[in-house]
Structures are given as structure tokens and as C-alpha cells.
Amino acid sequence: MSITIYHNPACSKSRKTLELIESQGVTPTIVRYLDEPPDAATLVSIAKFLDIPLADLLRQSEDAFTAAGDEVPLQDENALAAWLHAHPRVLQRPIVVDETNGRAVIGRPPENVLELLKS
Question: Fewer CB within 10 Å, N or C, the chain?
């Protein structure tokens, strides 16, 4: 199993999700997405693994999202992926990806990760 967590150590949900992963004996790859934003292709893949539209990965209450207003290309997945790469603070957190099985979960609540780790 190859697990990656898109992690923000300042976020309590992200810290708890990482703790749950490690408590299951899994050592994930940790990507501090604010420092190393996932590229557009990775963001599109993550949305596919989650089986949701890319727009559902946006934290619409985040200041960067509200400040951008109509500049956010919600109707164009590729343009939105590029915009989200440039504005990683807007990305939902944490996101945990199981690359081996092509699945992912958002760790809100953190216990969501346990379902991903079962297989």
C-alpha cells in the first residue's frame, strides 16, 4: 500500500489524520501541500480518486477563494486545476491518497482515513 497525505501541520484535522494513519502501522509519504503544491495533473487525479468534481476540492470559505471571485474557473477542470495549484491554501485538507488502489479520502472527519486503510 502506497499512502500519501497532503498535509498542513497547522491544521488539527490534518494532524489527527496523520496520527491515525501512523497508528495503523502505515508510514505515509507526507506532502506539505502549502510548501509543495500538487501540480494540475495530480489535482485532477486526486479528484478522480475521490470520485468528485475538482470544484469540490475547494474550500470556498477560504480568503483566497472569496478574494478571487469570478476569476476562479469553476467550469473548466484544467484551468481550475492550474488555479488551485497556484492557490493551494484553498485545497481541502487533509487529503489521503492510496496510489496502489487508486482511491482517496478527505480527512474530515479524520476517521474517514480508516476506511481507506482497510484494503
Answer: C
Active site residue 11: yes
Catalytic residue among 11, 30, 68, 114: 11
For residue 89, pLDDT beyond 80: yes
Assign domain 3-118 to its CATH architecture: 3-Layer(aba) Sandwich (3.40)
Contacts within 8 Å (CB) and 24+ apart, 99-103: 99/2, 99/3, 99/4, 100/1, 100/2, 101/1, 102/48, 102/49, 103/49
CB atoms within 10 A of CB 88: 19
Q: Model pTM greater than 0.85? A: yes
Determine the pLDDT at residue 119.
64
